[in-house]
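anyone seen this seq b4? input:
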Amino acid sequence: MEEIQFKTESFEGPLDVLLSLVEKHKMDIADVPIDLLCDQYMAWMKDAEAHDVELACEFLYMASELMLIKSRMLLPRDPAKDEDPRQPLMDALAEYQRAKLAAAELSDMFTLYGGRMAKEQDDVSPDRTYVADHDADLLRAALHRVLTETRMTERTAQTAFEGIVHAPRIPVETVMHDLIRSLKRKTLWLDGYFRDSRDRSECIAKFIGILELLKSHIVALEEEDPADEGVTLMDGHVGLRLCASDEEIAAANLESDIY
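predicted toks r here
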């Protein structure tokens, strides 16, 4: 059977009452004055009975435990050998106090994060067959509007965009495979690897390729002299190292539509 939980006024149990009395009278929970605590607890029980509050057996049992501890404190004992009669009660109070503080902290966290939902990442494969359906007349009208607003002639526009339109298309997939082949022979230094680029397009392709390989755990970065702040300095000696086997590389299926 499910255990029945009793609640008297605003207290969840006898330990809750005792902890409230300890905090109210600013007692040291590691050295509780048992006389004062016992008297205050008995006064609380009388007040509860006066208000016709039905006390559960656990509250009466705690009252008898307090009386027993109080009587044991009056007996002579050797502090070096005999355990303090209050110790089990003080340990229980300290544990209950920690649990109550943790419950309050968890309640605040639940209020802040309880309504949130985490959605797993969708694995959406790119549609390689899709071709955007743009009307050539609309594109021509948009170009004419841009040229009119910027007061740019068609020849100056062609000259300005010459480098972008006719820039070489460098597949990131090719760059990644070339990098893997190079790393199988030797370790490459990051600064020198980028300086060997023919132009900006190749440099960008290399950068994206390294990010893809790092994300796939195929290559790793190793700093020769790491900075104390934990920041990787690009002008320092940072090496690229291959950290995956041929089987793992094949399983990664390195393909990219980014140029």
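The first helix runs from residue 14 to 24. The longest strand covers residues 219-223. kinda curious what u guys think
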